[in-house]
Design goal:
mainly alpha; Fatty_acid_hydroxylase; Sterol_desaturase/TMEM195; 15 helices; 350 residues
Amino acid sequence: MNIFETLYNEVIGFFGISGIIEMVQKNDYSSLTTLQGIQKIIYPIIPLLLLLEIIRAVVYKRFKIEDYSMPFLVFVLNRFISRFISIAAVAFCIGLFEKYALFTTTFTWYWLIYGYIIWEFSHFIYHFLAHKVRILWCLHSTHHAPQQMNLFVNFAHFFLEAPYADVIRTSICILLGVNPGLLFFIMFIDGFWGSFIHIGENGLKDGRLGFLNKLILTPSHHRVHHAKNPLYMDTNFCNLLNIWDKVFKTYQEERDDLKIEYGITRQMSPHNVLDAYFGEIICLAKDVYRAPGLKNKFLYCIMPPGWSHTGEHKTAKKEREAFLEKEQTSRGEAVQYKTEPVRETPKELF
């Protein structure tokens, strides 16, 4: 296989149009009546939206190559690594836990509702832990490193994050009785929507999607999730149904008076792919090395990012509490200033 054929296959694979090409070449469109055929049509939508997002940014003179370069290089790096590492996490967990399921469901519309609620719960657990356990944050932080939101951010992940996520989500779903076939269908929906909500301002300026913002998790919610503003950090962990964010009090709307600042809080080279990929791992290794005693070394691995053995914690929770306290104090002072009666100065003093 020469280099041009390899590049051609990579491009076709990225845009997900191999299935469509196959149908056209064979002049056989009968598969469109099946779920697999429908998937072949839907898969290219996200890459095409990414292309349109870039074109729109160019037309409106908002395109910056650095906004896309780092996520793209992470994607290329993962493609290279994936040639040598293959982890069938989903199949492994199904085979391991299916016999221990509390009960069995079927592929029907009412079990789909149940299955999706359970899937969102499992996604919340994986995502919450990825933000609250520092060693897991090292896997997830690559996805949060880009300092602009666009559809390419969807492809920026540390290569071990997907197996970790699949083990957590699949295990919970199978143990709670979600049918494997139903689970794969849910994963397909989740994958499509999870990609779409990364669309940036160049592709969709207002990501609230009108009335849908009150019903489901929209691009606006996910932009909040990717923000490093103290109010926004560690919120909106769900993917489509925001029910669990509301249950566990991690739901946060985007505020018009608080502009989103994307990225992570530590100082980093924003366009350095190696820093985005390995930076948090190096920082953790340094903290573990410097920490006194085995207990503190262990705690640095399992406590939230920003935890310190000195007690001077700078976790997302602490930063959010400090922001809300400061904002509440400022509002209180403003209200007091507005409501305080104006005293007239006696005329005889003039």
